[in-house]
Amino acid sequence: MENIVKNLKKVFFIGIGGTGMSALAFFLLEDGKIISGSDKKESRSLLKLKQKGVNIYIGHSPDNISKDVDAVVYSGAIPSDNCELLSARQRNIPVLSRAQMLSKIIEQKFSIAVAGTHGKTTTTSMISKMLNDGGLDPSFLIGGELNDYGANARHGSGPYIVIEADESDGSFLNYKPNIAVITNIDFDHPSFFSDLKMVEDYFEKFMQGISEDGKLVVCGDHAVTRSVAERITDKEKIFYGFGDNNQVQCKNVILSGFGSYYDLYIEGEKIGEITLNVPGIHNVLNSLAAFSVAKIIGLDFVSAFDSIASFSGVRRRFELKCKDPYIIDDYAHHPEEINAVLNTARSIFKDKNLVLIFQPHRFSRTEKFLNNFCDILTKADTLLLFDVFPAGEKTANPYLGNKLFEECKKRMKDNVFFVSKDSIYELIQEIHGEKNVYLFMGAGDITKICDKVASIFLDIKKGERKEISDPNTSELST
Fold this sequence. Notes:
The chain has helices spanning 4-7, 19-30, 44-51, 83-90, 98-106, 120-133, 196-208, 223-229, 281-297, 301-309, 335-348, 363-368, 370-377, 400-412, 424-431, 446-462, and strands spanning 10-14, 34-39, 55-58, 71-74, 95-97, 110-115, 139-146, 151-154, 160-164, 179-182, 215-219, 236-241, 248-256, 259-266, 269-276, 319-323, 326-330, 353-358, 382-385, 416-418, 436-441. Helix 6 (120-133) crosses helix 9 (281-297), helix 6 packs across helix 10 (301-309) and helix 7 (196-208) crosses helix 8. It is α/β, with parallel strands linked by helices and 478 residues long.
């Protein structure tokens, strides 16, 4: 199967609409392959694929896979009894998981894989842009849409490929990159991992499994991450962070509005003064990871500094949707991520009322971290809580979202509300004030609600709508 990617002409994707799958489809499309695929419902990524001429089927059927397909790629979310998957195997069509296909792709170039519980997408994006701005024309596959290119994948002609290595189902062990970046190691994805130790063990295997002469770039400030990396004794490691025990270090950090400034030090020597135009202390760390990669491959630092300074972020990562009032859309769905977004918002909007609108993602995560969620969510001034977005999961406790609400209510009393897609507009109208900043968070479909709320406020500003919950809003609740 070594040359399967090179020899492919037609590829069918089962579950093509997912972030990782659509990135892979876009990449192979730019590589000259004929792509088709199926998914259960329409989405933003499917629309973009259709615009590129990809044949998309809504719903699954064996008839969707044409007779001349050379390979079938399936998402990790696809069950083993999926009719298309069974049909492909019965017809002896080569079948690969997304991770298996991606592992074949990265074998063809010098690969940089970014792994970690949090910060993967932004760090992968920073590195990809840095290499591109340095004239290296990299390929990349990212778990989010890079604002600077309006895409989550690209097939470049240069020698480098940058990928986001998703740990959620353990499939990142398929990758043997030349450089592995580890942003942090935290307990998440309880539907797959039983505890933090299991997560650590998988990351250790991933780090140990990189190419024979591969290098590790690791956040040295994160105790668990550093500890796991130090178990690897036969790979060169670069640690980055704030502490003096890191080879790549930031000093004199100044957080300023939607950006920051700091001095970059490598091996104790000041290399330059860095400007970031994305907010939060976590993005300072993400940029240090990118500079660590630049050091390894010998990228010109002046070019790297300019690239980071002009980096405009990733879709749904503290994405500003409206300025009057401020409305932020963010993918945060783990307590640590929510905390980072809240801290960033506090540093920017010091005298504002932070209204957090949160949609829990997956029953397994909500149940496992329920107390952690309560601790973090109640840091907001006002909390609007949606029911759990199942993401295909089934549960024995359909009232888990309500339980989270009740636990938060014990701590916040009057400033917490359980909302639906129908009731949220009227509630926002009731609580709206000049000092409100709206923070929409979650990995489900809450982004659609955020877009609609932002659109309503913009219409009001233009005089096209009188109030948030006027009769024309009802059509937006679906």
